[in-house]
Amino acid sequence: MPIRPLPILATALLATATQLGCEDASARRAADAQVTIDEASRSLRYAVLAPPPADDPEAIATTRSALQKVASSLTGVSETPGQEAAAALLVSTAKRELATIGLAEAETLAATHRRQREIVHGQIDAALRLDTLATTLERQVGGPHKTSLASARTDVSGRIQDLSRRIAELDGPIADRESQNRDERVMIAQLDGQAAQLRRQASEVGHLAGLPTFEEAVRIEREADKYESQIAHRENDLQFDLRPEHELASTRVGFLQSMLNEIRSSEVALDARNEMRSTQVQQTRQAVNAYRNEIQTTLSEMQNAWTDTLLPQYESALEHANAAVSQAKRASSKGPRDERDAVRLALARAHELAANVHTSRARELAGRRLLLERLGAAGNTFGRGADYARTADELRAAEEEAIGQAEAELQSAREELEQVGSRDAAAEVSAFRAGLDERLQKITARSSEPALPTPPDRAQTRGGSAGSSPPAPRSGGGYESAEALVAAMQSVDAGDADTVNAYLDAIHTTKPATRRLLRVVRGSVDASAQFVQAMREQFGDAAESAMAGPAGGMTPGAGANVELQDVTATEATAVATGPMGRPQMLKLITIDGRWFLDGESVFAGTGDAAGAQMAAMAEATKQVLASMADRVRAGEFPNAEAVTQTLMGELMSAMGAAPGK
């Protein structure tokens, strides 16, 4: 027996009702009831087949009014069992449609709340960074290390001058060879023209008479060949000697110029640090307080919106869904046996809809809970930590209750499906049951709305007690969402080789040059991690600010603050701002449904010459980091700043010794 659509099924039940009518006064009441049911069925069919657009409130209100009218018009219709079953099924359908509309409106409101929470998460990110900055400024003591920086500046400036002189020395030979090649190509064209003309003349006068002319054409062609050979030699010099050396020297000048700019900026910052520290701390604390007040105001507004709008919307949708379940049960008990399968299927759909309402509510509760948990875990930065934690516990309990109710509704839906025996409906029931089973299996893992990730103070998270583990890529590589990939990027710890390598695994490229760069970066991961660990073991929290530049230089984009932008189903862009404050535009892409970083955006601006230089320097850099780690553990340095200064000098010496200098 096929499973009929609900309005058609109600008509079938009406036919049964007519057959069961009596020829007395009750028959007239049954006829009147049948007219009411017919009208309700037509109205319901129109509402179901022509649902209102989601962005048309007026149409939604009209449809809701029509559905409510259908439900109210059928109240008390019970002249015959068939009529009672038909009316109950129509009411159940109307209630399901009302619950669906209500849930869609609740989801729209919930999406607005999610966007508000994303804004608050961004404010938390900013406030935590400012709080960490203020704490770091307060810890810093001592005067600027002008001597060390001046020495480093002099060294770098000398290297730039040496390379600039070499570039100037190369400019002349390159320009001379290019000019000679241009002139001789013009000469070759002229000679080729002369030779061609002589060959035509020789051909016109015959072989014997034209032999001297032909020989002159050959002589001219040989002269042109000599020019061709000279051009080839000069091009060989340009392509394999002069231009590569010029490009490499120019790249190194750019790199050293950036370092010189950093040194000069550090000198200025060090000179002004003691004078400006108190003012900066005061201003930073004021900014943190402003964020805290704004966050508290937003939380209060969101709580009011939840209480006054979203929660009633969920309760209304659930009330309609529960009414749909109740009316479907009533139809099942009153209707004819041969239509029970269709009614049970409708009842299962009603249970599923109720589960959807509970699930949506649980997801919204989870989003609110995660936000408050994060505020509570931030210690004194935002105040009211105990209140936030207590409210988060209450939300967790409500979330668990909603999930449990969703699970119960899904179980009820499955139980109804188990009683459907129609062979014609086997495929539909099987697919329905598979979907329910999948949801029941996943419900223990229950995905909740993730907070926008932020890299909190590394000193808090590196031990694993104060922060959550970064999202891990699943088998096959990549991440399941752009947000998960960003969270992994921000969770990279330079002292943990595993997190760095996991980040590098998420970089995708098909270009051989970029793959070589990735191998170069991987080669320094272990040495860099050992150095960072040694610094932390020896100097604790003071190591973090001291290593802000050197620790992250070999892994572009890792551990940066990342702002996700322009997310589509297949790609996204993000702005990564590293410890030194330099923004970098990154591109996120999808491959077979998984999210990766586009390697060309990670290593943007790194040409073949720079890549060759980077590869040449990698081995020397590893040796420097390994040596420095041993020296730090041996207690050779009085503080973290002294290590950083020494490391800078060692790295510059390594650059000078690297091939291509």
Terminal-residue CA separation: 85 Å
The largest beta-sheet arranges its strands as 1-5-4-3-2
Low-confidence sequence ranges = 1-22, 445-476, 549-555, 657-661
Task: Give the rounded overall mean pLDDT.
Answer: 75
Q: In DSSP terms, counting alpha (H) and pi (I) runs of 4 or more, how many helices?
A: 18
Written overview of the protein:
There is one protein chain. The chain folds into 2 domains: 6-135 and 300-442, no CATH class; 457-657, no CATH class. The chain has 18 helices and 5 strands. The protein has helices at residues 6-19, 25-49, 57-73, 81-139, 146-205, 211-334, 340-377, 385-418, 426-442, 458-461, 482-490, 497-505, 512-523, 525-539, 542-546, 599-602, 608-633, 640-657; strands at 507-508, 561-565, 571-577, 583-591, 594-598. The chain has a 5-stranded mixed beta sheet with strand order 1-5-4-3-2. The longest helix has 124 residues, at 211-334. It starts with 5 loop residues before the first helix and ends with a helix. The model is unreliable at 1-22, 445-476, 549-555 and 657-661 (pLDDT under 50).
